[in-house]
Amino acid sequence: MLLGSSRQHVVDLCKRGLLPYVKAGTHRRLRRADVEAVLRPELTRDQLKALWLHRAVAGRLVTDPDGVLSKVRANLDRLRQVHRDGMAAMWLDRWQATLDDGVEAVLDALTSRVPHAVELRQNSPFAGVLPETERRAVLAAFVARWREEHAA
């Protein structure tokens, strides 16, 4: 298997929406490109920046799951009032489903490089979870790392 993981782990990734699949009878069929994206996803600068911010959010989630999820649910409710339909509403529904799956599923969405998680983070209800000073520190660290890795 390309992923080098158990069958159950792949099933869990599929159920969480982190690995796209189609059903053929009782079997799940995966596209090779989706599996390879799990192995070596290439992110844009903005996607990578969002990943860094959401990793910091994941740290907060681990230490205060009830407080973070409460804030996220309130944000989700507010965003649903503004985005009642369209693509934004679809992503908000997917965040709701992820929240309903529990803290582990949320942590996966916050830190995974699979395409579905990348898209979720681009439509994030986690605004305000990080204090502004911490948010700025994460962004400064990201910029420093980006410049170091992309220096000519």
What does this structure look like?
The termini are far apart. The mean pLDDT is 90. Helices cover 68% and strands 4% of the residues. The relative contact order is 0.15. It is mainly alpha-helical and 152 residues long. The chain has a two-stranded antiparallel sheet with strand order 1-2.
SS elements, strand count: 2
Q: Report the total helices.
A: 8
First and last CA, distance: 38 Å
Biggest beta sheet summary: 2 strands, antiparallel
Sheet/helix structural class: mainly alpha
Strand order of the largest sheet: 1-2
Helix content: 55-70%
* Low-confidence residue ranges: none
How big is the Rg? 17 Å
Along the chain, the helix and strand elements come as HEEHHHHHHH
* Average pLDDT level: 90
β-sheet strand percentage: under 5%
The backbone outline, from C-alpha atoms, is globular
Keywords:
152 residues, mainly alpha, two-stranded antiparallel sheet, 2 strands, 4% strand, globular
Topology summary:
Layout: H1 7-15, E1 22-24, E2 27-29, H2 32-39, H3 45-63, H4 65-82, H5 86-100, H6 103-111, H7 115-121, H8 132-149
Antiparallel strand pairs: 1-2
Helix pairs in contact: 3-4, 3-6, 3-8, 4-5, 6-7
What does this entry show, briefly?
The protein is mainly alpha-helical and 152 residues long. The chain has helices spanning 7-15, 32-39, 45-63, 65-82, 86-100, 103-111, 115-121, 132-149; strands at 22-24, 27-29.
